């Protein structure tokens, strides 16, 4: 798992590259746990190169979602592959989290 | 014909198991979404055995076997420890509550139970075996 960051004044974009499982999810958790992330308005997760996600990866997002909402930080996923989106859908997480098709859609949220 | 692999209890071997399952399923003419679901179900059970049953003790091993009979796909994950991960009667967790309290774990078996047709745990001597079944379309 490789995580590439791009930050503007209001938005932090994390591009995930690889497989997010019980072995690699700690990297993502470290990034989402940084205190400064709560000072941004929006965290965009670019999933184009995310080839796999297990419950450990989902758990990282679930565990931070309420903290983000309490801090008025929007968490938005985009460019998600069908097989990865399907995993969110199996649990119904697509109704609890914001998943949009493209980066332009994510910017408009 | 049955296919099998043995791994040591290191979470880095989750990728090894996923590749093993993917290689087997490549010959089954399944969609990418279904293949990913089946890989995920096995990955979740193996991760539980590695992390919760064996505390990532690399001296311990898991055996993963896969076979198909009459379009029913069967996975068998065997843990050689006494205290194998064996969940009680399955209950669907409340995801909204997980979000509210910031819970990090607990959705793995929810995925497994929603993906597979049957999920069975059994013990034999000092071994715990999880069997997963799915009838292929």
Automatic annotation (TrEMBL), chain A:
Q: Which PROSITE patterns match?
A: STAS
Against Gene3D superfamilies, the record matches this protein to:
STAS domain
Taxonomic source organism: Hymenobacter lapidiphilus
Q: Record's family?
A: Belongs to the anti-sigma-factor antagonist family.
Q: What name does the UniProt record give this protein?
A: Anti-sigma factor antagonist
- List the InterPro entries: Anti-sigma_ant, STAS_dom, STAS_dom_sf
Please give the Gene Ontology molecular function terms for this protein: anti-sigma factor antagonist activity
List the SUPFAM superfamilies hit by this protein, alphabetically: SpoIIaa-like
The STAS domain extends over 1-109
